[in-house]
């Protein structure tokens, strides 16, 4: 005796009603025709799993099917279940809320979850400097956002602003819900009645608004972005919420330093003589000057890094700073071969090994 309906729903013959329901919802989501428009067999597969669910989700027809098997059940005049009321079917599957059983992937016109009615986020680049990180930021910046003209963009009367319409098709014991984009508004939910004399959008349907927002970042901030809620993509209707603006920070090159976490890398070139006898240098460190003589490090080794502690960038939310890392490069002179003996003697007298 074969029982292919269990195979169709990818459950075993001992599966509970809950297991059958979970599997059906998963398979319906995968094989829904709206999600598989490029697959000609998707609709047939969807009908197949829907029919299997209609039989196995009903305890009475399930028991009868388990007893008779595929062939005898299909030949029996009472083999198929009565057509359920649509509200009863929604309640059985989705906890009493009449909603699209396939959730957000297909656009739910009856129910919106936490952020499903939020418009898209907008990303913009914003240049920052090492001085911004060192001192923190507290400044007003201009943000231009595009808004939809409510005078020229009205709610589509055919889909009531949902952007989708539904058709109910009878297929044996089941009714299939086919959801398609509204042709009247091309899925936008908005009917355009643009007027070139409109004082807001001049007939474009959108207009730009300049906003002033306060950008505040603490000293030593290490995040690469900040978010301004509500300044992203703007709603087309009253049922939508505005998206957010994500301000992506781009660090500009600095004339003296290279950022390495909270440390600053400073590069300086010495002559060979300076690397041996030392040189006084002044480093412009934001709002102060650091004065050092390289002979405090001894003879400079160009492959070594030299550290000045607590002269890097602030560490956010602390009173500490990173370090300054000095990397020296050395310019070597051309050697006069005639002076080698004299130079050798001088160096031997000058150095202690």
Automatic annotation (TrEMBL):
<dbReference type="GO" id="GO:0006457">
    <property type="term" value="P:protein folding"/>
</dbReference>
<dbReference type="InterPro" id="IPR044713">
    <property type="entry name" value="DNJA1/2-like"/>
</dbReference>
<dbReference type="GO" id="GO:0030544">
    <property type="term" value="F:Hsp70 protein binding"/>
</dbReference>
<keyword id="KW-0479">Metal-binding</keyword>
<dbReference type="Pfam" id="PF01556">
    <property type="entry name" value="DnaJ_C"/>
</dbReference>
<protein>
    <recommendedName>
        <fullName>J domain-containing protein</fullName>
    </recommendedName>
</protein>
<keyword id="KW-0862">Zinc</keyword>
<dbReference type="InterPro" id="IPR036410">
    <property type="entry name" value="HSP_DnaJ_Cys-rich_dom_sf"/>
</dbReference>
<dbReference type="Pfam" id="PF00226">
    <property type="entry name" value="DnaJ"/>
</dbReference>
<dbReference type="GO" id="GO:0008270">
    <property type="term" value="F:zinc ion binding"/>
</dbReference>
<dbReference type="InterPro" id="IPR001623">
    <property type="entry name" value="DnaJ_domain"/>
</dbReference>
<dbReference type="InterPro" id="IPR008971">
    <property type="entry name" value="HSP40/DnaJ_pept-bd"/>
</dbReference>
<keyword id="KW-0863">Zinc-finger</keyword>
<feature type="domain" description="J">
    <location>
        <begin position="4"/>
        <end position="69"/>
    </location>
</feature>
<dbReference type="GO" id="GO:0051082">
    <property type="term" value="F:unfolded protein binding"/>
</dbReference>
<dbReference type="InterPro" id="IPR001305">
    <property type="entry name" value="HSP_DnaJ_Cys-rich_dom"/>
</dbReference>
<dbReference type="InterPro" id="IPR036869">
    <property type="entry name" value="J_dom_sf"/>
</dbReference>
<dbReference type="InterPro" id="IPR002939">
    <property type="entry name" value="DnaJ_C"/>
</dbReference>
<dbReference type="InterPro" id="IPR018253">
    <property type="entry name" value="DnaJ_domain_CS"/>
</dbReference>
<keyword id="KW-0677">Repeat</keyword>
């Amino acid at each position: 005796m074969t029982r292919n309906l269990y195979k169709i729903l990818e459950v075993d013959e001992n599966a509970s009603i809950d297991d059958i329901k979970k599997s059906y919802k998963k398979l319906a989501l995968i094989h829904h025709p709206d999600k598989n428009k490029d697959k000609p067999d998707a609709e047939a597969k969807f009908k197949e799993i829907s029919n299997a669910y209609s039989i196995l989700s009903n305890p009475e027809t399930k028991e009868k099917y388990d007893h008779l098997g595929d062939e005898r059940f299909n030949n029996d005049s009472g083999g198929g279940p009565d057509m359920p009321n649509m509200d009863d079917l929604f309640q059985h599957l989705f906890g009493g809320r009449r909603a699209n059983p396939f959730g957000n992937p297909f656009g739910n016109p009856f129910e919106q979850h936490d952020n499903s009615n939020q418009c898209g986020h907008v990303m913009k680049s914003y240049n920052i400097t090492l001085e911004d990180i060192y001192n923190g930021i507290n400044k007003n910046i201009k943000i231009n956002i595009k808004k939809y003209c409510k005078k020229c963009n009205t709610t589509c009367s055919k889909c009531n602003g949902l952007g989708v319409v539904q058709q109910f098709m009878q297929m044996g014991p089941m009714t299939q819900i086919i959801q398609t984009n509204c042709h009247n508004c091309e899925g936008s939910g908005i009917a355009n009645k643009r007027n070139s004399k409109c004082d807001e959008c001049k007939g474009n349907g959108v207009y730009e608004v300049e906003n002033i927002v306060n950008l505040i970042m603490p000293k030593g901030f290490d995040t690469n972005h900040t978010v301004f809620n509500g300044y992203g993509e703007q709603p087309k209707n009253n049922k939508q919420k505005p998206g957010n603006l994500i301000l992506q920070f781009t660090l500009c090159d600095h004339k003296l330093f290279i950022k390495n976490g909270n440390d600053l890398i400073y590069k300086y070139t010495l002559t060979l003589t300076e690397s041996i006898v030392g040189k006084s240098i002044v480093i412009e460190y934001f709002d102060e000057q650091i004065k050092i003589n390289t002979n405090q490090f001894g003879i400079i080794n160009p492959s070594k890094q030299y550290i000045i502690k607590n002269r890097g960038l602030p560490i956010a939310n602390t009173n500490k700073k990173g370090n300054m890392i000095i990397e020296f490069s050395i310019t070597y002179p051309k050697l006069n071969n005639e002076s080698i003996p004299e130079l050798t003697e001088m160096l031997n007298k000058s150095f202690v090994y």
